[in-house]
Amino acid sequence: MIEAIKLAQTFCRAPAWKGYIAEEISSPVNATNDQLQDYIRGSVVTSYHAIGLAAMFASGARYGVVDSDLSVKGAS
């Protein structure tokens, strides 16, 4: 998690984002690993997010739910 936060911060500080990102609003800026670990322990929570699987089908197939364009079979 610590490395993921550092990579996200590095990505968002890239020159390409200048003018698009005003400020960081969640993770501590220029934090040590210990500070990031404290931040993670204090802010990460579980969430209940229902998921499911939808099989992709080939054109003309009788099986599956979505095609390669992620269009739902039978929906218009």
Automatic annotation (TrEMBL):
The protein's required cofactors: FAD
Family matches, as InterPro entries: FAD/NAD-bd_sf, GMC_OxRtase_C
Residue span, Glucose-methanol-choline oxidoreductase C-terminal domain: 1-75
Gene Ontology MF terms: oxidoreductase activity, acting on CH-OH group of donors
Membrane-spanning ranges: none
Highest taxon in the source lineage: Eukaryota
Protein's UniProt name: Glucose-methanol-choline oxidoreductase C-terminal domain-containing protein
Species of origin: Psilocybe cyanescens
